Amino acid sequence: MTPPPGDPIGARPGQEACPRHPDRVTGLRCTRCERPACPECLREASVGYQCVDCVNEGRRTTRTARTFVGAEFIGPKTLVTPLLIAVNVLMFVITAVQSGSLVDNARGSSLFQALVMWTPAVAIEDEWWRLVTSGFLHFGPAHLALNMIALYVLGRDLEPVFGRLRFTAVYFVSLLGGGVAVYLFGATLSAVAGASGAVYGLMGAMLVAVLRLKLSPGPALGVIGLNVVLSFTLPGISLLGHLGGLVIGAALTAGLVYAPARKRDTYQAVVIAGAVVLLVVLVFVRTGQLL
Asked: Residue limits of the Peptidase S54 rhomboid domain (predicted)?
């Protein structure tokens, strides 16, 4: 007898029908549930072939691998880190083109002047975005290169562990923390720019993560100590922005890595939101003092 249209080649009378396609008889079976299944409904497994129902059930019951921070493990590949580097480089290129100078890109660039951290503009003109946007501007290629190299090294290790969402939160809250520190304690007529606040926040995050994992903190402390010394010795460096980012990044990360396992995601969201609210309140307080 010739199999009806749609049946697998070689079907014989008396063979069972595929549950998902009753018009198709088959001699194949799922190695997991042993039900008959046509070739269209089978998927290759580690041993034999499984039907699509068993494959879907296995996906639902398999526990997702998570890091000690609670992030889903997605492997060593990074996405946020190269994206942040690309944005910083793009901003530098735009300011260099506007100013007509690769070294003196701050002078003559309308974009730089509109986004740099300038305390009078924040307090009087309510241009609060400068607290964050200044972190994507740099004074010259050397300033940019130092920060981007540090961002690449730290992001390469932290982003896979923290996950993209938590890593992004630590970066931007640290960036805001550095800007707020400059706004609170810095000279009112000094222009400040650079991703250093966020980078130092990642350094603080690295130190807290190392302590949480009970690893030797020596290398992390050495990197932080060296950069703090450079902040004191090199001209034109905003020590306040560095320390503000470092403190906020370390404190925020402590809230993330020591969050209780039960309802960890909720607890971590509250910690992040609380840090942002605190920084915003400090900005309003400082603005009141300046006006």
From this structure: 126-257
Residue with tokens 């691998």: 65
Q: How many helices (H) and strands (E) does the chain have?
A: 10, 4
Side-chain-facing half-sphere of 94: CA atoms under 13 Å: 14
Residue type, 267: Y
Of the candidates 109, 196, 231, 238, the residue annotated as catalytic is 196
Which of 115, 125, 253 has its CA nearest to residue 195?
Answer: 115
Q: What is the pLDDT of residues 17-55, one digit of tens each?
A: 888 888 888 888 888 888 888 888 888 876 678 888 888
Q: Which residue has the tokens 């450079």?
A: 230
| Active-site annotation holds for 134 | no
User: What is the Rg, in whole angstroms, of the alpha carbon atoms belonging to the chain?
Assistant: 28
Q: Catalytic site residue 196?
A: yes
- 267/270 Cα distance (integer angstroms): 5
Q: Strand locations in the chain, DSSP E?
A: 17-18, 21-25, 42-44, 49-51
Among 146, 206, 221, 218, smallest CA distance to 171 is for 206
Distance CA 128, CA 121 (A): 8
Query: Which one of 134, 174, 231, 242 is the catalytic residue?
Result: 242
Distance between CA atoms of 206 and 212, rounded to whole angstroms?
A: 10
Give the integer Cα–Cα distance in Å for 203 and 247.
10
